[in-house]
Amino acid sequence: MTERIEINPLVMLGKPVIRGTRIPVELLLRKLAEGAAIEDLLDAYPRLTPEDVRAALAYAADTIAHEAVLTPVSE
């Protein structure tokens, strides 16, 4: 995944992007959530590969997996 996703403060304000592009991981995730197929993304972004899309999904899953959830304790 780190081969395909990069975080660089000089690119898209440091948001995670597909390496060598300015395509944010967030954009791909939103498009997929809206119902876009991987083929739609590949058509819209010719430099994108299916592996890039899978890396974006893996990045999101890993990010959520390491997220701490705080719940209020009732007395």
Short description:
This protein is mainly alpha-helical. It has helices at residues 25-33, 38-44, 50-65, and strands at residues 5-6, 17-18.
Task: Give an account of the 3D structure.
- Helices cover 43% and strands 5% of the residues.
- It is mainly α.
- The chain has one domain (5-65): Arc Repressor Mutant, subunit A (Orthogonal Bundle).
- It has a two-stranded antiparallel ribbon with strand order 1-2.
- The chain is globular, with a radius of gyration of 15 Å.
Spans of at least 5 consecutive residues with low confidence: none
Strand percent estimate: 5-15%
Our count of domains comes out at 1
Provide the gyration radius in Å. Answer: 15 Å
CATH topology: Arc Repressor Mutant, subunit A
- The coarse overall form would be globular
What's the helix-strand series?
A: EEHHH
**Main beta-sheet strand count, sense and barrel state:** 2 strands, antiparallel
Strand order of the largest sheet: 1-2
Number of E-state strands: 2
| Count of individual helical segments | 3
CATH class: Mainly Alpha
Average pLDDT score: 93
Superfamily (CATH H level) name: Winged helix-like DNA-binding domain superfamily/Winged helix DNA-binding domain
Structural category is mainly alpha
> What share of residues is helical?
40-55%
CATH architecture descriptor text: Orthogonal Bundle
Separation of termini? Answer: 43 Å
